[in-house]
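F.,

This is the one I mentioned.
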């Protein structure tokens, strides 16, 4: 076979393709031909005699093809591609990555990351940067050659900035900027600066190649410009507008020389608006007007056309803000309308949210509260699409903090107008939105993320942690814990299935009330009428939302009495103590507080008159003993089954149809690891449960004593999918370990060690119901003392900055079991006495095996304990036992 023919044809097509690309001509057909002939050239190389003189290598062919793949996507011709088309394009390119070396692959991944950044998908960009960082490379030379293909640190900082982690972005940029400023003391070079270019070329000639080549200076300058742009934006976001303005002014010559001065004017206008300098912002926007307010046909280059499309909505949003600050509210509405035309051409939910917010502010100023509320609702719907993709609790928290001012505005507008639908959408976003997204994906028909090297590495680290801990090597164990925590957040942040839920409809309260209406009809044993009650603590009060099966959604705010506020403060402090007083755990009786002290009395009456109430607390209200809440002097649970849910949008995802018979797996830890008290009564509990259920309803032999080790639980966590004709139930009796400063380190103790939250949520189990006879297994951490680092942005700083978690980040053990497949979990956020907890578990199984649904079985078990002794001293010993689920 003559190998030179395919090679010649391939290189001819390659030259034609890049010539057409340079001339701005259509390249689609040439690209397809190039890929086809590239495959033939690679095949010819592989099939030839290796001794033959072949004029190309596999790396040569594959490198050109990868460049072409990147170019096809980054050109304006690909602007109409959907997310799935983009992913298919990149997947096709993967055919050629095995043939190139590490340097070329790093360059290819950097190009992909740059594209994802331009499309606003910073999490994908950060994942690609992380992948590129893992590739081997030569040590830095300390010369301009280090920046030949950009710099991964610059891309990483840009992605972190887009993810609202501007502080970390600035930390990443600082050493890179120092390097470049040392090599380019006069600042970045402009290719259009003819005088500087001639001077450098002359120096190169005089030095006979000893001076830095111009091309290297220009490559380093591109990186310098990129870091200055990211730095300016990050400075603005952390509240340092004067420094941001200085950086943007340094960049202004670069924007002008590139033929895009409007970029600089827009950035400077943003800073001026931040500083309240409306007139200066107006002047800058006037300078940017020629691009955005003239017909698109006048933009002669694709770069200007692309800028018009990408920045048009932002320009109009700033025009609206400036007009509103001048008091020209109707003009602001006109600018919002214009911004919508840009948004229609290029969807950007973050920008759409800001446009709707400006529209709402203008309507409020004009005295149109109903229209303002509707605009805020549209803004919330747009942010729902942005926030539904979890990125790890650090980025989720920072994003939520960044958006909180708008959410607070929207809640105020909802309260002014009585707009319950708006309040429901916003409070759900302010609660566990990322968790409801993960939950909906876990419950979908889509396959799980395939096992990859990261998950294999996670299992290896888990084994290494157990080994080093058993060998008494605490320092090494701690380092392994840190590595595994970082890997866990990375795996969750880049789950390739997230794009499947990007376009799902936002949370709709109407669908929720429809679900409530069908609650009893769908499952005759569920117990009749069901209502949903959502709470959101506001300064001095609680915003309550009540959804009923007749299609009603009501909203009212309950102002809290001073005594109630003091009781909540004292309870919160008490939970922080190592051994809280048992009697005080019956919060309601101890403080003579009832449900109507937290919500409007009519709402409490509605809950008490229903067979089931699905309750979504907020913040510190999650830790209250809801099972024993009182109303009108009577425990609510005597007549109403209570199910606790993270937020309203989780309810349908947590629903399941309890099937009979049961198949129960029993684990009982009698002698936990050293340092924890033994639990001899658990052997009796497991024996009683075994006798009650009988061998036909057991999921294998009970694991008790030494058999209840970590390996046994991990095997059950990987037992999915759910059983087709019965309900699998997992019962674990042991010590629960809470870890307030590290959400993923809360755990259940097994005979030979701990199984932690992070491990459990990685499981895919067949158990749809879980009973945790243990303390503090639904305790929610409010902070991450390590700063929440780990979601692809590398290790945190040497001195950790504690991250106060915004919203209701659902990282408790109970939520890990939900994510692993359980629809119902019985757990406690506070300590419980084992004797009474065991009695509750046994009674729950009696009623559940008798045909009751999980919530009803939990209600009857609680009533049984109340009937024995309902004094605060006795109730406080088991008050925390709570049913988490919707059925």
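My design for it:
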């Amino acid at each position: 076979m003559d190998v030179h023919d395919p090679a010649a044809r391939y290189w001819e097509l390659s030259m034609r393709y890049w010539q057409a690309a340079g001339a701005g001509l259509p390249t689609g057909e040439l690209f397809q031909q190039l890929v086809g002939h590239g495959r033939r050239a690679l095949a010819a190389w592989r099939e030839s005699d290796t001794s033959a003189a072949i004029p190309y290598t596999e790396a040569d062919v594959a490198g050109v093809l990868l460049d072409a793949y990147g170019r096809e996507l980054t050109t304006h011709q690909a602007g109409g591609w959907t997310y799935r088309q983009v992913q298919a394009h990149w997947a096709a390119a993967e055919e050629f990555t095995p043939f190139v070396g590490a340097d070329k692959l790093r360059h290819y991944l950097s190009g992909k990351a740059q594209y994802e950044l331009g499309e606003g998908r910073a999490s994908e960009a950060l994942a690609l940067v992380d992948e590129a960082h893992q590739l081997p490379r030569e040590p830095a030379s300390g010369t301009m050659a280090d920046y030949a293909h950009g710099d991964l640190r610059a891309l990483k900082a840009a992605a972190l900035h887009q993810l609202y982690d501007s502080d970390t972005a600035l930390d990443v940029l600082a050493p890179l900027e120092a390097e470049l400023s040392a090599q380019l003391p006069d600042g970045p070079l402009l290719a259009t600066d003819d005088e500087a270019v001639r001077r450098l070329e002359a120096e190169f000639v005089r030095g006979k190649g000893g001076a830095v080549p111009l091309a290297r200076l220009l490559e380093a300058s591109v990186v310098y410009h990129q870091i200055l742009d990211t730095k300016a934006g990050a400075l603005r976001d952390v509240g340092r507008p004067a420094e941001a303005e200085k950086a943007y002014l340094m960049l202004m010559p670069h924007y002008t020389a590139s033929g895009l001065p409007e970029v600089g004017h827009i950035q400077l206008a943003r800073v001026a608006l931040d500083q309240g300098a409306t007139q200066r912002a107006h002047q800058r926007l006037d300078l940017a007007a020629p691009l955005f307010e003239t017909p698109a046909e006048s933009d002669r280059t694709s770069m200007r056309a692309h800028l018009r499309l990408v920045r048009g909505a932002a320009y109009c949003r700033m025009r609206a803000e400036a007009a509103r600050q001048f008091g020209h509210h109707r003009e602001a509405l006109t600018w919002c309308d214009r911004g919508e035309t840009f948004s229609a051409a290029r969807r950007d939910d973050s920008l759409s949210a800001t446009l709707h917010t400006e529209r709402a502010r203008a309507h409020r100023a004009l005295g149109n509260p109903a229209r303002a509320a509707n605009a805020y609702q549209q803004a919330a719907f747009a942010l729902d699409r942005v926030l539904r993709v979890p990125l790890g609790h650090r980025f989720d928290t920072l994003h939520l903090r960044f958006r909180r001012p708008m959410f607070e505005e929207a809640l105020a507008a909802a309260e002014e107008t009585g707009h319950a639908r708006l309040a429901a959408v916003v409070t759900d976003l302010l609660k566990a939105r990322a968790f409801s997204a993960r939950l909906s994906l876990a419950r979908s028909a889509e396959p799980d993320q395939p096992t990859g090297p990261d998950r294999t590495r996670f299992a290896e680290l888990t084994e290494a942690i157990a080994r080093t801990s058993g060998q008494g090597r605490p320092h090494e164990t701690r380092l392994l814990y840190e590595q595994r925590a970082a890997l866990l957040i990375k795996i969750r942040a880049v789950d390739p299935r997230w794009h499947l839920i990007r376009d799902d409809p936002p949370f709709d309260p109407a669908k929720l009330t429809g679900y409530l209406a069908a609650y009893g009809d769908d499952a005759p044993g569920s117990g009749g009428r069901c209502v949903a009650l959502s709470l959101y603590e506001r300064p001095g009060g609680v915003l309550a939302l009540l959804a009923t099966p007749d299609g009603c959604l009501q909203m009212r705010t309950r102002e809290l009495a001073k005594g109630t506020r003091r009781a909540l403060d004292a309870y919160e402090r008490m939970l922080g103590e190592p051994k809280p007083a048992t009697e005080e755990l019956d919060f309601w009786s101890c403080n003579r507080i009832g449900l109507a002290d937290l919500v409007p009395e009519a709402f409490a009456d509605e809950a008490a008159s229903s067979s089931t109430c699905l309750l979504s607390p907020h913040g510190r209200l999650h830790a209250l003993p809801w099972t024993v809440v009182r109303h009108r002097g009577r425990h609510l649970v005597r007549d109403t089954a209570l199910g606790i849910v993270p937020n309203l949008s989780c309810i349908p995802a947590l629903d399941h149809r309890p099937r009979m018979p049961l198949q129960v797996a029993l684990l009982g830890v009698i002698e936990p690891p050293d340092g924890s008290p033994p639990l001899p009564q658990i052997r009796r509990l497991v024996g009683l449960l075994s006798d009650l259920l009988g061998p036909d309803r057991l999921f294998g032999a009970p694991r008790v004593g030494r058999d209840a080790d970590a390996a046994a639980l991990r095997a059950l966590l990987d037992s999915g999918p759910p059983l087709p004709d019965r309900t699998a139930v997992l019962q674990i009796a042991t010590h629960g370990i809470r870890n307030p400063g590290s959400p993923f380190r809360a755990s259940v103790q097994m005979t030979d060690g701990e199984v932690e939250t992070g491990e459990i949520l990685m499981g895919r189990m067949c158990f749809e119901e879980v009973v945790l006879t243990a303390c503090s297994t639904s305790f929610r951490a409010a902070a991450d003392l390590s700063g929440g680092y780990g979601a692809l942005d590398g290790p945190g700083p040497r001195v950790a900055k504690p991250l106060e978690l915004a919203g209701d980040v659902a990282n408790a053990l109970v939520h890990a079991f939900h994510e692993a497949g359980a629809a119902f979990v019985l757990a406690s956020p506070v300590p419980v006495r084992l004797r009474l907890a065991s009695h509750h578990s046994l009674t729950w199984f009696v009623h559940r095996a008798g045909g009751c649904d999980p919530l009803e079985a939990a209600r009857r078990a609680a009533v049984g304990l109340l009937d024995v002794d309902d004094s605060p001293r006795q109730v406080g010993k088991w008050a925390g036992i709570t049913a988490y689920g919707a059925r």
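The mean pLDDT is 88.

Talk soon.
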